[in-house]
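Appendix B. Raw example, untouched.
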Amino acid sequence: MLQVEDIHTYYGDAYVLQGLTLVNSIVGFTPPRRGRILFKGVNITQVSSFETIRSGMGLVPQGRRVFPSLTVEENLRVAARSVRRHGWTLERVFELFPRLRERRRQLSSTLSGGEQQMLAIGRGLMTNPDCLIMDEPSEGLAPIVIQGVWEAIGRLKEEGLSILLVEQNAALALKVVDYVHVMAKGQVVYSARPDELWANDEIKALHLGI
């Protein structure tokens, strides 16, 4: 569904990405100067972020970035797109995260970090994506909150939603992913199935601090 070929991305003159994907490059915030990004067989390398999202790419950004002046329900409704095969509606999001139903009239700026992360995921789902990119979903969350978020991610996976998960907590990520790419200094240094990575003590010690 998503294919990235030898992309090279810069912030100004700073060379930050060497033949590797990055969330901002895939979504269209910082298009690469070289390489290709294909989504569902279509070249989206230089496509605007707006058009990328409309094509079926969903995003749960790092830092959550909910709209603070809007209520929970307004945050979800503003992202709503036509229902595709996954059929995400307001009610389905509330079923996945009952806490959001309880907070639906509350300003998102007053939510806890965990509730904001649930809202960010729910907002991404409301675009009814074919592929959902999740950027550091466990960042800044307490362990008990992370467990609930990870259970939700596992449920999404079981329902057949394609997910690209960017996560520094390797032990946590390995619980839900099917395939792993280890990044270091802007490059992929190792790719394998989770069980293969877990059995590779050298890679774990060198790049994951395990």
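End of appendix B.
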